[in-house]
Request: fold
Amino acid sequence: MSHILVVEDDEDLSDMLSYKLGSEGYDVTIHSDGTEAWGHLEDAEEPPDIVLLDVMLPGLDGFALLKRIRDEPELEETPVVLLTGRGKEEDVVRGLELGADDYVTKPFSPSALVARIRRLT
Amino acid sequence: MISLGRVLVTVSISLFVSLFVLGTAAVSISVFLLWRSRRRAETKETVKQQMFERLEGEDDWEVWCEGFSRAEKGAAKRLLADYLRQVKGKEQTELRRVGKALGIEDRAAKRIGSRRKYARIDGLTWLTLLGGHVSTYEVVEAATDRETRAAAGRYLHESGNDRTATHVVLDTESPLSVFGMDTLYRANRTNSRPIHGWAMGESENWETELLIQVLTVVRHTEPTIDERSLEWIYPLLGHEKSAVRAAAVRALNSVGWMDSVRESVDMELLSEDESPEVRRATYETLSEWGDEVSLLLLAYRVTVEENDRCRLVAVESLHEQGYEAKDVSRPEYHKTWDWVEARSEVTSS
Reply:
């Protein structure tokens, strides 16, 4: 079973994502804070199969967390999908340049997001 | 004759009783509020889980909603208000059906005719979220002030009527709310004809702040290809307020390729404006235009610019284009170039 780490501070939205991804067969871990999520990644025995990452987070924001993931040898190959309300071109470019594998702007289709995640795992 | 002692005792007892009653009331209210908050949280979680289970299949939402208590209806409504702002596609379609099953759309359609402003805003907001259908006439009638115009404009934009959305939002001489400005941007993002069309007839009546807001929106929208539609901007380049002049220059950022713009706008004059704000805006626009004539003007202005921030904007642009510092006998000029080059080395390493 693939393991997905979801970092999203909107509790209701993360619950929906958790349910949707869980029903698609994923094992889901949720963190609502970027710093806590980084702590989880550092301590985890195995890296997640994919990270779904909001940009606007308390603690480390999504871009900073993405940079740390890409700088960490054990995580540099882990697929990361950014999920955010920040849809300006420069934000998309920044996310992709920092190493995100995909960038999804809100409002988004959860079903389409799952399809994108399936393609990466 | 009543003794002082007895008076003091009576007052003390009264105070004690009053404090006791108030304290008991405060504690009771706190306990009640805590209990209610926990019940609401539990109800919300239950409704949420049921909603998720039913979202996967195309459920009969009317049947689900029929048995709802008032608390469950409230929880479902709050969840919808959150989710409908964040999702689209199949899930949005199903959640909208939930909203209709709860009767929210019908109530919203009635509320837009209310005399109370916040009832109309609430109605317009829910109609937008649920994709509800009401007549344009009713929506326009509901728009009587800044906030209701913004809400009506957003509904019209989401319904695909960007021209009327723009007219409703801009049917004023006073500044827009932040939501109104955002709505104006969304309605004109990919086709700015509505905003230019309205501005051509109305901009002379606008207050300064509204002028600046509209010019700012124009700057960020897809440039118009109709050269005549920019004519309302040119007189604003000579406006008495520097903030308007600066906004007008920036509004022309993406249309430097038009001959009519080059003929109508004296960038050399603007680059000598007494206001540093206008000069800075001019340098930004020259940089966006990026052609040889614009960059030559920029390269000259950098050598005589007195304001540090303005000079920095110009040097950054020239540096990006591959220009280098010239042999100029002004220490501030070289300081700015040295700073930009040093920063560029640090960020590229």
Notes: Strands of chain A lie at 3-7, 27-31, 50-54, 80-84, 102-105. Chain A touches chain B through 15 residues (CB under 8 Å). The two ends of chain A are 11 Å apart (CA to CA).
